[in-house]
Amino acid sequence: MCGIVGIVGTANVNQALYDALIVLQHRGQDAAGIVTSKDNKLFLRKANGLVKDVFHTRHMQRLLGNYGIGHVRYPTAGSSSSAEAQPFYVNSPYGITLAHNGNLTNVEELAKSIYLSDLRHVNTSSDSEVLLNAFAHELAKSKKLRLAPDDIFDAVTQLYKRCVGGFAVVSMIIGHGIVAFRDPNGIRPLVYGSRETVQGIEYMVASESVALDVLGFTLIRDVAPGEAIYITEQGELFTKQCVAVKQFTPCIFEYVYLARPDSIIDGSSVYKSRLKMGEKLAEKILRERPDHDIDVVIPIPDTSRTSALELANSLGVKFREGFIKNRYIGRTFIMPGQAERKKSVRQKLNAIELEFKGKNVLLVDDSIVRGTTCKQIVQMARDCGAKKVYFCSAAPAVRYPNVYGIDMPSVHELIAHNRTTEEVAKLIGTDWLIYQDLEDLKEAVRFEGTNLHDFDCAVFDGHYVTGDVNEAYLHHIEEERNDKALGQKQAETEIIELHNN
Ligand SMILES: O=P(O)(O)OC[C@H]1O[C@H](OP(=O)(O)OP(=O)(O)O)[C@H](O)[C@@H]1O
Ligand SMILES: NC(=O)CC[C@H](N)C(=O)O
Ligand SMILES: [Mg+2]
């Protein structure tokens, strides 16, 4: 779940791209990049680090042009080396750059065919570089110096035949404009909007609507699954459904954890969904133990706060801020490496003893994935003198890997894999563990007036919507991407430093 943005403006867009990436920072903390274009040249700056650390005034001054794209990265393929920071670039045809949120499930076959049939070289192990080369190959087929919108849409249609997985993409074609498209299942989110200026209309495409809000753009709508949009460098907008939608199944984990609560994805407010998750959890608690003895509900900041608040309201129990979050530590789940994640939980959260001492506390988190957070938090609650420590998760148990853009490749790293709720409760040291039911989670996200019916819930139910994920594939990514393998990969790229450009 990286963050992507593309803007076609009426003046330089460097500052607007930077501001949008700051708003999307929660989607990726490892690397950031911006590329802009002016007078048929491109200007690129990308590196590992947070947005505020990657772009200095000297870089910003050189990112010239009225159109460009940006990316914040959370690696799900390859390594977290700076060589795989995005946007990626290929010089032929036209000069194309691309930023991708998601993960391709057929990257190995695709990379092979790009080399053997398309005679193209890919220099990193990033699936996004493969995707860019496939797109470039399809665009080259038109053999035109100047592409018409339909040439671009035809290329995207062909690309859909070659790429499988989750992908929301923004691409900049030098001398032309910006193209954006979303995978046929709509797994990863993508929206676009516009704003009026005295010089004319400006367009922006982004992973989440919150980026549009903060920059004063008005949301037009979500990019539909299988749809592409093209905004020329002069600000003309074209859209086309490039492939029929077989099943619209956006990733439900966006609503649970990934997205900001103030975003609206596919017509459903993330904030309202999280409130509803809290309400549903309260109903389950009352079903399981109508005569519960919970004294206080305490969220684990940051993401669970919305659900925890509504849970407490529905139960009629006090809501208290028992953990204080250090505002300078980022999201721990998307940090690379278990050692860093583990250390960061304690650095990030500290308890207020008086909220725990002598009480039966219900701790609420949005999800339990590896169990890194909850294990430490339960212990902290006990150290503060809690009488009983109950724990609930606004999402069901995470039991299966994700292959569409969330870095959960290894079942053995998932605390609930092959374990019952009671076994997990014992492992994390809680007196009572309550998981949300999957149907209740789906109900919390479906709102009237949206066409949301089904979702990619693979991490909860092991059903992979693209239909190509089998045991052999899961075994393969487990080997490739477990913490140990990633550490090794990182060490190798640091020595060799292979760059895309
Ligand atoms: O079981 P785990 O592997 O620990 O993963 C789940 C935890 O990680 C996330 O928090 P994170 O610190 O990333 O972000 P947040 O501040 O948005 O809650 C999530 O909100 C849970 O708290
Ligand atoms: N989280 C993502 O969307 C990752 C995008 C891409 N697969 C990468 O690893 O860079
Ligand atoms: Mg959290």
Concise summary:
With about 500 residues, the chain is an alpha+beta fold. It has 17 helices and 22 strands. The strands form 5 sheets. It has a 7-stranded antiparallel sheet.
In order across it, which strands form the biggest sheet? 3-2-4-1-10-9-11
The DSSP helix count reads: 17
Q: Identify the CATH homologous superfamily of the largest domain.
A: Aminohydrolase, N-terminal nucleophile (Ntn) domain
Number of domains: 2
The chain-level structural class is: alpha+beta
In what range is the share of β-strand residues?
Answer: 15-25%
Parts with pLDDT < 50 across at least 5 consecutive residues: none
CATH class of the largest domain: Alpha Beta
EC number: 2.4.2.14
GO molecular function: amidophosphoribosyltransferase activity; magnesium ion binding
InterPro entries: GATase_2_dom, Ntn_hydrolases_N, PRTase-like, PRTase_dom, PurF, PurF_N
Keywords: Glutamine amidotransferase, Glycosyltransferase, Magnesium, Metal-binding, Purine biosynthesis, Transferase
